[in-house]
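ok so I'm stuck.
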Amino acid sequence: MGNTTLPIPLELTLDILHRCGRHGVYNFARTSKANYDISVHLLYKHIDLVIALESEALERHEKYGVYDFVQIVDLPIGFSCPEFFTDPLTSDPTSDIQEALRKFKNIQELHLIIAEENYSKTCPTARILRWVLSDYVSQLSTLFLEIYCSSFHQQEFKDLLTDVSTFKNDPLPNHDKLKTIKTWVSHFQPRRLMSYISPLLSPFVCGLQNIEIRTRCNFNDNVEDGWWVSDGNYTYLKGLESESITSASIEDKQMSSTKFTCQFISKAWPNLVDLDLDLGIDHYMNHYRRLSRLKHLKKLGIMFPYRTWGLQVRANMAEEAEFPATRLCALIPPLQEVSIKYMGGDCSMSQTAVFNCVRREDEDQSIVASVELKELWGEKGDYEDSIGMLRMVDGVKMPEGVSSFRLDDE
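replied:
not stuck anymore, here's the structure
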């Protein structure tokens, strides 16, 4: 594409390059000076800020207007990691981070990746996170928190978040631009950790449109008791209720009660249009009837309700998925599309069947719901789903001496 003589609109060029990967972008950049400008534009759309500062790339390419190009910033911070903070280039790396972030004129998303080691009140994590919530959030349309914590430092993480929460004592910054909050939590008791984080986010849910919460169990600690801890009232999401939210994605595989989940969601976010629920494999179909209170819900995605199917795997799960999809269309009148995810093959893959809802009047003039398969696609299977299949579903076997397993569909 670099040798073409035809004029190509910049937007189209960037879209094509975006699909090529970074290697293709660099090859394109070598063909001409003009292409190099375009490539820099693309490469700086999404950056890792720590790497950009350590390499001095922002300063080298400032003449190309990189501060105007940046839209998404990944910022990995921790109690004593990464190396940018343990062996800082300057005496005050926190100020360097703040100064760089202030230069981005068109930033849309800030992605904070937080890990833990040893917490002190002077660590960069607390200072940066507090500054983001008390000031910089006014520049963002998306705030993305990705948090990893081991069981050994749970109290230290709680102390960190308690210190950060003092930002609420100050006047709340304007956050009219903020439309999306995403929070991914990995912990041996992720709900408990999320219960510390929700109060930090609650001041910003007014006016929010999209929310994504993922609570993941951290198996690396060899502590699995927390995986089964129940929170029937979903107190870990308390404070995140908002009538303005129209799209929600919730992942909570820790033996969730679908009944209470749907009950909470229907009250917390009554104006949902799009809802994706990944609650693991152990739930009943009828618990979803509580979502019928959502009068505007058009798209719904769930995990296959294996409990209703007697915790069994059938030969053709795509056909089996039609039954819960049809039931959901009947339960929730506004629904237009239903997605059902199930485990396939040897459980290393999952598949998702997407159905359109079809409604017609029968002879008695009552509405009859049915579904039509729209698309079928697969992806890598989720580890927690695989563990759940092994523990609970009839027909799943782990061969001795083999690290993978297969489903007995017979």
